[in-house]
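Reagents: none. Just compute today. Carboxylic ester hydrolase.
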Amino acid sequence: MGKPLIAASFNYRLGGSGFLPGTSVHKSRAANLGLHDQRMALRWIQENIAAFGGDASRVTVQGESAGAFSIGVHYLTNEEQDEEFFHAAIAESGGPVLGAPLTASDEQDVMYERILTDIGCLAMKDDLECLRSQDASKLNQAFARTSGSYVPILDADLVTGYTSVALREGRFSNRPLLIGTCYNEASSIIVASCFAANTSADFQDYVAGSWKGISSTTINGIVDEYVNKMSEEELKKSLGTIRQSPGPQYGSLFGNLAMYQGDIIFDATRRYTTEVWGQYRVPVYSYRFSVVPNGIDSEILGVPHFQEIPFAFRNFDGVGHEVNRLASASFKPRQKYLQVSNLMSRMWISFVNEHSPNGHDGKSLL
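Predicted 3D structure written out:
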């Protein structure tokens, strides 16, 4: 293609190590360490990438799922923290609008106390220092046993407010963005939940259990849109290859539930983000990945979360995957996978080089 690039990857702290909740954590300025790890890595790239032949003024960051939501947070950091670590981003299945509610402060403290109790630090005068003195494996076990979500929290530092509000008010870094989702993002989430919805009441229970504090009026409105008002034709089109009810164990409203969950976490947030970028005339490109990969049940999962990754990375050999998603015993599907992967990877390379995915040699490979 004649569009060289240098790739750099990094690790950051996850779970309780990177996103420990609680008032003590907040007061000690130890909140959202995972996000700070990411910024430290990006700062290192700014300072050192030139030594590898790179251009520090043309850094594009790429992330999927939690990585994409992290990128979104960095787009929305306050002005004092807004160092120019990157100049464009690719956000796959995530973005500036977090797909889950931020954990309330009282819930954070409940989680924190459970961890302290589990690890034996509850009675200590300096409970946070007690945690710091523990073995990492012991801490990870305690984090895993503690129910709750380890996600970014409001910290008056990096995350100073709700991301949706920041977007609505135009408080984001005006940098190009390539953002997209898979066609059936939440099918695997619903399958993993083992929740079978057969009635509107079941659907209401699922929605209420997913979002603490949501009003009955909002719940009823959601059920009305996704169950009562949706025609069979509209549902079939929206689900792609997925069946509304692949089997009794999934419930008769499996497809409706998967569509709702995918919308609220991934697709609605993607659409809103692109609308805001467009409103402020910042370059933005959106995609929806609709190729059912090899080894995926098309009627149950369709094109679920994460499945675009081997295509974007041109992973023809399936390295790192138990099943090669680009393989097939038949020539025609295999050829289709290779063509999609070639085009997609070229578009990603084009975006990194030009901040537009359309410079992929000007020809369609499909």
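The mean pLDDT is 94.
Action item: order primers for follow-up constructs.
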